[in-house]
Amino acid sequence: MKLIIDKNALSQNQDQLKKFISASRHNYAILTDGLLEESLKDKGTKAAHISRDLSVLSRVPSQVLILKSPISAIKLRGSKKEMARKLIDVDKTKTFSLFYKDITLSNLNDKYSSHFSFMQYSSINTRRYLETKISFLQEDQKKLIDSFTENELLDIRKGLVFTNDIIQKFTNSVYDMAFSLNKQQSTSTETIKLKDLPQTFNFRLAVCQQAYSLVHLQNGTLADVGSERLLHDLYDMFYIVYASYYDGILSQDKKLNGLFKLVNLLIRCANRELSPHKTTCFICPTN
């Protein structure tokens, strides 16, 4: 089993992480750039704190996988199985033990080595990338709202139930967003076939962002949410997008786990694995 590890599981609920890792040598803990950046943001540049968070995984480096950044992930193509393989950053994964050793030495020597500095640089780039997506997230929610009738918006806000018509409009919005994202970020004349689109990182990001937008309609619009709160939630969204290629997320965050379940259902629906006309409703996770 391969699970994305969120910040909570890494630093505050290590018993859960220990149990997962020790249950089988075929269980893998997957780390993202966003996870490291969150640790750096919350704990400054104190290597001792990050060293403590990674201490459990440092004992089983063969069960640790480190993923490529979102900036690299959006360029990848392939089936779900191929994407899961391509998303792994082989170099960072191989040097995880050195990375941990460098953090420990940094704590002792009060300076940072090349491995730690490289990881730090990569994670800061990820933060900058996420910061650029905040305004787009708010704008895309407005477009999604405009596609619904007043009665549909009322259903979403009061009942936490998504009807077939709402899901169909959601799916259309996701495809439009995914095509737009791929076109904006493409550096070639590549044309993505419709059947291949659901496996792309941008498609799954579009599903996650739109699902998040629907959830927030219960309490208002994203225009009312502060930028730091949105940035924090974007980190959670990227955990979910990465996890959609693997076996899930290791987290005790009920909101995060609920959104992950919803996104997985919506991915299947948008990929025509579940027909909206055969699906009675989707229950949205509460805040």
Describe this protein's structure:
The protein contains 16 helices and 6 strands. It is mainly alpha-helical and 287 residues long. It folds into 2 domains: 2-130, no CATH class; 132-283, no CATH class.
State the gist of this model.
With 287 residues, this protein is mostly helical.
Tell me what portion of residues adopts beta-strand conformation.
5-15%
Task: Report the end-to-end length measured between terminal Cα atoms.
Answer: 28 Å
SSE-based structural type: mainly alpha
The average pLDDT value, as a whole number, equals 79
- The structural domain count equals 2
Protein topology:
Layout: E1 2-5, H1 7-11, H2 14-23, E2 28-31, H3 33-43, H4 47-53, H5 55-58, E3 64-66, H6 70-73, H7 80-86, H8 90-94, H9 96-109, H10 114-131, H11 134-146, H12 150-159, E4 161-162, H13 164-185, H14 201-216, H15 227-243, E5 249-250, H16 254-270, E6 282-283
Parallel strand pairs: 1-2, 1-5, 2-3
Antiparallel strand pairs: 4-6
Supply database-style keywords.
287 residues; two-stranded antiparallel sheet; mainly alpha; 6% strand
